[in-house]
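Let us work through a complete example step by step.
Step 1: write down the sequence.
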Amino acid sequence: MELLDWIPLGIVLVDTAGRVCLVNRAAGVLAGREPAECMGLQAREVFRLEGPAGEDAWERVETAPSWASGTPEREGRLTTAKGVEVPVSFTFRRVPDGLLLLFRHQASISWMRRSVAEMVAAVSHELRSPLTSVKGFTATLLKSWERFGEEEKKHMLLTVNSDADRLGRLIQDLLDASRIEAGRLRVVRRPMDPVRAAEEAVERARSQGAEVELEVEVGLPQVRADPDRVSQVLDNLVSNAIRHGGGRVRLRVFRRDGELLYAVSDEGPGIPPEDLGKIFGKFYGRGRGERKLGTGLGLYISRGIAEAHGGRLWAESQLGQGATFYFSLPLGEG
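Step 2: predict the structure and record it as tokens.
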């Protein structure tokens, strides 16, 4: 039963006498009752369902001929214990010795539709630019190879290569996001030097012309972590600070309360308090709720990586005073 309580879909099992014999927490919440209160009661009285035309959904099911696969999913209303009408989508399934009711709030369906639409829009935008570049340069070279000098050809091929890398990163981000969503993100832990990971992240940023300071606490121990995933998080935090923050960017590595901490600070405009809890969601742009270039998956994936290590990722900020992102890893496992 505890496992069913993790499922956001309302689940109700009804015996042949019409009594509730199993109900998960999501169903109880939608009905406005504690799950334990529902047990043994008549299902049609606890879960008062109406179809789209206001008809009694239970009566339709009870009078319908036997079906094996169940009823099509329909939209309707559920009246809670306090008399509040909740828009829901529901379906019934025949099971041995009873009936299974599955339902969910219409708002969750609308959210999923919006989420899919946002993902398609973000991915389409990100794909269009590099694909246009790749197509344009390759078509030009194929058509007029002899007209260009070696340096011009090299420049165009380097651009194509860079855009191909960008497409690869986009695909990897989408795969990582789907793994996090499904709880299947894997990290391969092994002893690693946390300072070296920070040094390499700073070196990569500096190689692209950015100015990043590094401050390291002396005598830091090794940690057990996935070096590639740690680098992925650090690169994302540092690049975000450079791109969105502005001013001096600083990466600190230190320990506190049994954790190793990476802290990336900038001197930019800061993040509004109401956005601090939202910026780690999928497709959410940083700062003032504005959409920025990119899929908006970087912080979502970075938090998933931190949590897969048993660590955390959070941000602190004051408007006009920049922002600091903290990435923690457990110590004592090195």
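Step 3: interpret the result. The CA atoms of residues 44 and 101 lie 11 Å apart.
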